[in-house]
Design goal:
alpha+beta; 3 strands; 27% strand
Length: 107
């Protein structure tokens, strides 16, 4: 569907950035995030894992969407359903209200 507002377009662009794996775009191999790589790494410390996911998302956003600030990232795993629910709270420079992006990732 088409996006007719700036905030909706930023929301869509942010989702695309986070869900694109680095190396997926042939002529822009640095575009994207390492989210999928992190989701498939073995992890023992959940707090450290949450910090690493926050860091990888923030790094991608700072590089490709510097007008967006990531405020918070929460992950809820549903291993029986092979899913990870990722909730991202972010702010856009020039807009007052923070926004939420909820992603459902098959793992």
């Amino acid at each position: 569907s088409l996006n007719y507002t700036t905030i909706k377009q930023i929301h869509t662009n942010l989702k695309n950035l986070i869900l694109t794996m680095k190396g997926e775009r042939v002529y822009n191999p640095e575009f994207g995030s390492d989210l999928y790589r992190l989701l498939f790494e073995p992890t023992v410390d959940e707090e450290l894992f949450q910090d690493r996911v926050f860091q990888t998302i923030t790094e991608a956003v700072q590089r490709f969407m510097p007008f967006v600030t990531i405020n918070e990232v929460n992950i809820d795993f549903k291993p029986d359903d092979n899913l990870a629910f990722i909730s991202i709270n972010y702010s856009v420079n020039g807009f007052v209200t923070p926004e939420d992006l909820d992603l459902e990732v098959i793992i």
